[in-house]
Amino acid sequence: MSKTNAVRILESRKLIFELIDYEVSEDALDAVSVANKVGMDPDMVFKTLVSRNESNKIFVFVIPGSCELNLKKAAKLSASKNIEMIKVKELFDLTGYIRGGCSPIGMKKDYPVFIDETALIFDRISISAGVRGTQIILSPVDLISTVDATTGDLI
Question: Are 46 and 125 in contact (CB under 8 A)?
């Protein structure tokens, strides 16, 4: 695989991480399916969700693959009145990534990132490497520092 923005950023910071490749299926892009393919607990495979608030400000939420984002908690943590998910067709233009390959690292712009606090339970978690078919395994602390994230209860 060619290096993604996410991989280049982690390498430039000299962080320890691992890449795991898996077979992509168009009808199984969800984080639980990815967790099964890479042999990890779905609670350790975090998905990246892009949303906007009432002022059209974009936010990124990173939560365990087995969970749903609680929009009220997301709004509160991001100091917004409300949060709604962006449309899938907007994802690439906003982030540079496609559905099933969206990483919180290396987006086109530096959006505020919020990571569910359960990430800190684990020594290592998995996120998308920025392409379908590859996951990055890294320390949640390294992810938080790399994207300057805020942690909190999002599920």
Answer: yes
